[in-house]
Amino acid sequence: MIIDSFDGQRADEKINAVWRRHPFVLSKAGFIVVGMAVVGSVPLAMGWGGWSIGFLIFIVSCSGLYALINYWLWVNTIFILTNQRIFAIYQKRLFVRTNNEVPLENIQNVSHTKHGIFEMMMDFGDVEIETSGAKTAMQIKDVPNPYFVQQKILSKDLSKDK
Fold first, then answer.
1. Strand 124-131 and strand 85-93: pairing?
2. Alpha carbon distances (Å) from 35 to 1, 49, 72
3. Which 8-state DSSP code applies to residue 148?
4. Alpha helix locations (H) across the chain?
5. What per-residue confidence (pLDDT) applies to 160?
6. pLDDT at residue 157, rounded to an integer
7. DSSP class per residue in 91-119
8. Which of 108, 122, 106, 116 is closest to 21 using CA atoms?
9. Predicted TM-score (pTM) above 0.85
């Protein structure tokens, strides 16, 4: 993904890395959409009359809307690492967005965690950033290759461009 600039970017600030959540987080929405389509097609398959086509159209429309909303939430959740700070922009719900920013010079510790078999197999997890003033200043959830993200944040060559 290529991002050249963002709102609030300083004149001397350069983007070093951009991450999104792992696409596997969309699988839950995918299973719900498929389940809704199967449930919606049952009345049609049972031959329960003309209303079953309308019911199927309604269920498919609702599940499609649910899928689009989840995709939109996924696309609008983004993590940006610059040579001065790191941003976590979470689109939590349709009209709820949380922005978090941590200056690189305040970072004391960066760790990563993988929970469960799917995160281990598909290599994604959470990265936790700690500062001296707060136990956990930022948590980057469900990022691909969390070890790489951790090392990228900790690399000292980011601050040389200040």
1. unpaired
2. 31, 22, 20
3. H
4. 27-46, 51-75, 116-122, 146-154
5. 47
6. 53
7. EEETTEEEEEEEEGGGEEEEEEE--HHHH
8. 122
9. no
